[in-house]
Amino acid sequence: MQKFLTAAAAAVLLLGAVGAAQAAPDGKDMTGDHHRVMHPEWSKGHKIDADSWRRGQVVDWRSHHLSAPPRGYEWREIDGNWVLAAVATGVIVSVLEAH
Prior knowledge:
Layout: H1 2-21, H2 50-55, E1 57-58, E2 73-78, E3 81-86, E4 92-97
Antiparallel strand pairs: 1-2, 2-3, 3-4
């Protein structure tokens, strides 16, 4: 019985380690509080899509020591990134990795 329990515990630990080591298929890092996704298409001058923008949370730029957004712009945290973009058009001014 002791050998069975030891083998079962080892199997559970091994399967858990293998699952944790695998990257999520969509590129998200599932280990932190935030789902981090690399968005090479998000760079200065490009436009962020409306779905991503709506999915983001407004960021308190003061508490994160970010620059004050110009009038008509907002900082949002999206997929583990801080994105500064125009609210009306989605044109990106800056993208930083959130911490």
